[in-house]
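Field: COMPLEX_INPUT
Field: COMPONENT_COUNT = two
Field: RESIDUE_TOTAL = 588
Field: MODE = joint
Values follow.
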Amino acid sequence: MYTQVLKAQWLTARTAVMLLVVLAFALPLLVVTYGGNLEGAPSGRVATWLFAAQRIGVLIPGLALLLGLLLGLGAWAPDHAGNHVYALSLPVPRGMYVLLRFAAGATLLAVPVAALGIGAAVAVASVKLPSGVHAYPLELTARFALAALVCYAIFFAISIATRRAVLATLGVVCGILLADLLLVALGVESSVTQSVFYLLTTWPGPLSILMGRWALFDV
Amino acid sequence: MCRRAVVWLALATLGGASAARTQGVPRKDHGARGLLARAESLLADARRADSADRWRAQEQRRARRFDAGDVTLLLPGTVGRAAGRVVVASAAAYLNDLGAVPEVFLRRHVLVTLLATDVDVTLKTEGLLGRATIGIDLPLVPDTLVAGWSVAAAVVRAYEGTLDRAWQDWLPTDLSLGWRVAADGPAAVRALMEGDTRAGAKCLEGEVARCRLWLGLDDDPDPFQARYEPGEIRHLVAQREWFYEPERADAEQCVAGSDDACLRFAEGTRFVPRIPAGAAARRSLLRAVRALHGPDALLRALADTSGSLGQRLARVARVPEDSMVAEWRSWVMTEGGQARVTAGVGDALPVLAFVGLLLLAATRGGRWR
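Field: COMPLEX_OUTPUT
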């Protein structure tokens, strides 16, 4: 059953997955554009290179978001197209079917993650680092996997949510924005949006994984 | 101004007429006398108006007191009350954020803008006569945000002047007022990475003892010899022409290969900086000490006068000097202590819990229910 779902999901998402694989493989390699032996390089060159690594690192959580978005929404695309008739005709409980869909999407997610890991490994192998600077290909790949997973789960849940759940979520978002406007009108120097964003993006917030440093090469 | 021009024009015309009269046949001219009387009257009016304008301008610039925390500021009346409050509040916020100037110093001083008038009267009426004044050069209508920083910088400069010689020689201008790790940290790292000295390069690579040399934290009796290699001084000297004695002779010998001449040159001129690390890097060190060891750490370090600067900073940090420098290096290179890329259990747990929660929600309700 899982294989069938995976196959169906692959057919709908393969273009996106292949595109993301190329991007994920290329991103770490961009860091080593200067390439070569940095062991005896002047410190200025190492500096430029480290800054480039940090700047390119910022793109990686963006890629995780894109990956989660495409696969999360894509996971339910065939069901939405067929008005869920196929899902209803299957002799499996609904919960199981959701899990199968999620697992299939997560499997596809692993392909770009692996591509990023391979790209990072190739990037690390192609430079000789000066002492004091280290490479973190495994940590970067694992963090990318976690970030992509959380984004995928969010969009997967949004995609299958009932109209009532979507309305409730939108209501909460609007409520927060309204509360902010009210606070501004009352002259209170506090922001609910900012507080919520802080809670979500600061550990142990679920989106904290997208924050922090993403440099393949660091001190 | 325009009125005065008219009056002078009238007087000039009359003067011309009178001169013409002396050359021609003298005769009483009632018309001219009337004109002269009118011109004199206009001149008197103009003088009165000028005097009133001057008085009004003087009044507008009369010093007005603003307070925020321990900061007391006299601003000219041209700065509105609301703007004045913003200026003094932002100055106090900058100083509080820096945490280097003691409250007692602030309470003993009053900040006075140079364009304010009747300062003495205001000081007397406001009961501030016992306080020393710190002059600030602000425009009559300043940009409030910039003015807040300028006021705080004036306080910092005045306080720096009271510190011991070692601190005065080492501290960067304005200490690290308004310094932000996200915005200003990269400049410090760049300074470390682009430094021309071997000490800087080795510091970048993790040799803490070289960081101390680069930052000029040790009490080196011969700082140039300790912090630079002769070749580095030679490189700096060779960058320009030297025309005047005695530096010319030393410069020529230095470029020709004499290490002693290079050291003599460095000691004799101010061309080679005594501390290889620039202001950006030194500011970052001050900020790191404050960020890692409490808001009053910098205050205590600046008040300390015994031992080398590194020892003073290490004392407030309560760690060995090398550990303190290593902390700074790591702090500044990771944008204020942000850890390098991590993916441990601590990172994974919230993600997995959240994913589980979403999956649970997805399995319990959906579009075809």
